[in-house]
Amino acid sequence: MTDDTERADQFACTETVLDVTPDVVAVSNLGVASYVLAGVEDRERNFYQWGSMGVTSPTGLGLALAVDDPVVVFEGDGSLLMSLGVLSTLGSVDPPNLTVVVWDNAIYGTTGGQPNYSSSTDFAGVAESCGVSATHVRSDEAFEKAYREATESDRAEFIVCDVEPVDPDSRPPFDFAHIKRRVRNALTEG
Amino acid sequence: MTWIEQAIDGLKRTDIEMVAYLPDTTISPLIEAAKDDDAFETVLVTREEAAVGVLSGAWLGGKRGALLCQSSGLANTFNALSSLSVPARIPFVGIVTRRGDLGEFNLAQVTSGYNMPELLDDANIRNHSIHEEENVGERVEMAATTAFSTETPYVLLMETTVTGYKEESK
């Protein structure tokens, strides 16, 4: 049984993804999701967003259609609320090498921690209703189990992970064109 | 060749393999032609800015794509183009049927449609209007060539003199 007040550690869960799938191509939402990813490990295969709120999961979807390697999206609850329609596209296209992780901290973490509609939105339920295979976890252990299962799945997987809000000091490189060049060179001939 | 056939040929000549789209009356024949052609993987999006993400991700992974939509839909892409494509210097090709000008019956289409070239200019997104059907194939190829070479967005606006226009009774 999970305790509804239990929350996972976003740093530990991000680290788990990189440990379980060292070659994963990671697309991270602007703000906290990218700050945490950069703090865990600044990798060639990290595509951090510096803007384009609401477009993070679509970017991961496009990547998953272009490469055979596993692709993970580190999505924010606020960004997903801006673009829930993407779940309908995800449910239909359903690339098996894609896992979307939603860090549900129930706030707009990058703008000062204002509350969002997370508490009244069942993200996994919405995803399931859009035809996406989804699960909801609240601990580091449950996250690791769900992520390992997602990598074995023959469908796109959507993991909602309740996390404690964090305010990391780490930052990705600021040069956005450098980030994209690095990712593309790591995935293609350049 | 019709403008549809020319556009398909132009996309193929520039190695575009993915088409993200959201339907519009006058661009639907082009969308259908792309869906019926094995050269293209097609992705229906629910909002046009998602297509900027899908196509940006595909390009990062080595695949070229284009968005097919209407000018009001292109207005939905402005934050994605301005905060992803432009600053990250990721190529983007939009083939967009322009509403709001000759033949337009619906005032709701006029503000973003008629003013789209200026709106794009203000966002530092290069664009070109095609007024003559015989130019479509060449200019699709030229637009894609410069977008992928310079790694910047480029939008082609297909005018109603090429595509025809939706009438109020239809």
Structure, described:
The complex is a heterodimer of chains A (190) and B (170). With 190 residues, chain A is α/β, with parallel strands linked by helices. Chain A has 8 helices and 8 strands, in the order αβαβαβααβββαβαβα. The longest helix of chain A has 13 residues, at 140-152. The mean pLDDT of chain A is 96. The two termini of chain B are 26 Å apart. In chain B, 46% of the residues lie in helices and 20% in strands. Chain B has a 6-stranded parallel sheet with strand order 2-1-3-4-6-5, with helices on both faces. In chain B, β5 (126-130), α8 (136-150) and β6 (153-158) form a beta-alpha-beta unit. With 170 residues, chain B is α/β, with parallel strands linked by helices. Chain B has helices at 3-13, 28-35, 48-60, 71-75, 78-88, 110-114, 116-122, 136-150, 160-163; strands at residues 16-21, 41-44, 64-70, 92-97, 126-130, 153-158. The interface between A and B is medium-sized, with 38 and 32 residues.
SSE sequence of chain B, one letter per element: HEHEHEHHEHHEHEH
- What about the largest sheet of chain B? 6 strands, parallel
Low-pLDDT parts of chain A are none
Distance between the termini of chain B: 26 Å
Give me the Rg of chain B, rounded: 14 Å
Oligomer: heterodimer
Mean pLDDT of chain A: 96
The CA-CA distance between the termini of chain A, in Å, is 48 Å
List keywords for this structure.
heterodimer; A: 190 residues; alpha/beta; two-stranded antiparallel ribbon; B: 170 residues; six-stranded parallel beta sheet; 9 helices; 6 strands; 46% helix
Write the layout of secondary structure elements.
The complex is a heterodimer of chains A (190) and B (170).
Chain A: H1 10-20, E1 25-28, H2 32-40, E2 46-48, H3 56-66, E3 71-76, H4 77-82, H5 86-93, E4 98-104, E5 107-108, E6 114-115, H6 123-129, E7 133-137, H7 140-152, E8 157-162, H8 176-187
Parallel strand pairs in A: 1-2, 1-3, 3-4, 4-8, 7-8
Antiparallel strand pairs in A: 5-6
Chain B: H1 3-13, E1 16-21, H2 28-35, E2 41-44, H3 48-60, E3 64-70, H4 71-75, H5 78-88, E4 92-97, H6 110-114, H7 116-122, E5 126-130, H8 136-150, E6 153-158, H9 160-163
Parallel strand pairs in B: 1-2, 1-3, 3-4, 4-6, 5-6
